[in-house]
Amino acid sequence: MKSGAETLTIENNERIPPRARLLAVAAELFYRHGIRAIGVEAIAEAAGTNKMTLYRHFPSKDELVAECLREFARQGVERWAKYEKAHPGDALAQIRAWLTDVAAILSDGNHRGCALANAAIELPDRAHPARRVVEQFKLGQRTHLAHLCRSAGLKDPEMLADELYLLLEGARVTAQSIGTGGLSERLIRMGEATIAAHEKQ
Fold first, then answer.
1. Which among 110, 135, 136, 131 has a CA at the least distance from the CA of 65?
2. Predicted local distance difference test score (pLDDT) of residue 180
3. Contact of 83 with 98, CB cutoff 8 Å
């Protein structure tokens, strides 16, 4: 997880301010081990600080979780900006860049699925502040995808956005349940077939 211009590993790095260090360490621990499995003591220790400092920056563990997810969401939004910069004015190319990027992420042996989807499973209470982050991000991603489908002149763009988004979500679950062997290639092939079915003749 990125904090500012630097990427923090789980090892302590005193050059990074305490808040950024706590946020990066918490995000990594939550992603690798699960939100409920990690307490504030473990986060403070891994960040080279203490609980008092943690609570000075984050009033509760729930707020820390929500802030971690906001950072993951921000990175997701930045990826769309990257695709737009690489393919200005070409919505279809941006969709394909997204598919390729997701496929590459799935092939990473360290990938443990979507951090926001994982959090939604762990946190069933819809009043939890992190759940609002998850829902807003997921809805925003699907809305942006639908916008690109419309801009690309594809038939039934709302349905296509749903199909592509559900394909992605299913691929992430598949990666966790039965492995990633050949999954990236299948995702791209299925994504392209889905797009082709919506092309205007």
1. 131
2. 77
3. yes
Which residues, in sequence order, are CB contacts of 3 under 8 Å at separation 6+? 16, 20, 21, 23, 24, 71
HEC letters along 11-25: CCCCCCCHHHHHHHH
3-class SS of residue 121: helix
Alpha-carbon Rg for the chain, nearest whole angstrom, is: 18
* pTM for this prediction: 0.83
Question: What pLDDT is recorded for position 197?
Answer: 96
The Cα 56–Cα 60 span in angstroms is 9
Running DSSP on this structure, what letter comes out for residue 6? E
Contact residues for 14 (Cβ-Cβ < 8 A; gap 6+): 48
Convert the pLDDT of each residue in 74-119 to its tens digit.
999 999 999 999 999 999 999 999 999 999 988 876 778 889 999 9
